[in-house]
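Subject: Predicted fold for Beta-lactamase class A, 317 residues

User T.R. writes:
Posting the sequence so we have a shared reference for the thread.
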Amino acid sequence: MFSSSRLSFLIIICLCGIITASAQPSAIGNPKVDKKLTALLQELIKGHEGDVGIYVRNLKTNKIVEINADTLFPTASMIKVPIQCGLFDKISKGELKYNAILTYKDSLHYDDGIVGSLKDGAKIPLSEVVMLMETVSDNTGSLWCQALAGGGKSINEWLDKNGFTATRVNSRTPGREANRTRYGWGQTSPREMAELIAMIRAGKAISPDASDRMYRNLTRQYWDGEGLSQLPPEIKTACKNGAVNRSRSEAVLVHAPHGEYVYCVITKNNKDESWTSNNAGYVLLRKVAKALWNYYEPKHPWQAPANFEKWYQEAVE
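User M.O. replies:
I've generated the C-alpha cells; pasting them so everyone works from the same file.
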C-alpha cells in the first residue's frame, strides 16, 4: 500500500511527464517516414549550390519527410513566429493588451518599413504592429514586438519551456552574440519551425484563443511570390518566410482538400546571393511547394500560369 503522500508524489510525477511530453514539438504520436516523398524531394534538391533542410508532415496521415530536419539554419524573418508567441504569452498573463495604443518613438527606428516610417509620437495599436510583423514582415515593428515580449531572453525561455530546443532569438539577446554572428536574428531547424506553426494551428500555443488569433495573423501573407505561388489561389495557408543574402526559407501549413500538411524548407550557404525572383533559393522554394501539392493532391493538379515567373520577375524587379 502507498501512503497518501507517496501516492500524491507519484501522481505529480506522472502528470509532469504528461505535460512535458505534450509540450514537445516532436510529440506527434508515432510518425512514419514517407519514403516515396523523401526520394522525390531528395532528387528535386540535387544540384542546389548550398545546404538544404526540409521537414514535411501530413497532419492527417502523420507521415513525415526529414532531410537535415534537425540541422540549425538561420531563421531570417521566420523568427517573427516565435516573437509573436512570446508577445501573446505576455498578453495571456495580463501584462499587455492586444488592443493597447502604442506611441512610436524615433529611437525605435530600424529601417524604412511601414512602422519605421511613422513620425515620432505617432499612435498605433499593438494589434496593427503585430499584423505588420507577420503580414509584411515589418522589421522595425518586429523588433518593437520583441522588446514588448520581454526581449529575446523571455521568448527563448518560452520556446525552451515548450520543447523547442533549436529555435532561438539571437539579436539583441545578451549571451547570444556568437550565435548572432553565425545565424543572424534567429536560428531554428526545419522540424521545429514547421511544428511551431502546427502547434499554433492545433490551438496548443499559449491557449486556444491566443493560438486562434496568432494563426489568423499567419494566414495573411503579403510575400506570396514563392511557395504560395505554386498553390491554387483559393487554398488557405498559414505562412512565414525569410531571406538574407545566403539563405532563403519558408514554413507553410496548407489546408489541402485531402488533409492539411505542414512543411518547412530552409537553405544556407547559398552560392546565389542575388535578389531577383529567379534566385536559386527562391526557385527551390517554388519547386518544393509545387511537388508537395501535386503529391498530396494528384486529383487536383495545379500549376501557376506558364509565364508566371517571367511576369513576376518583370513586375517586381
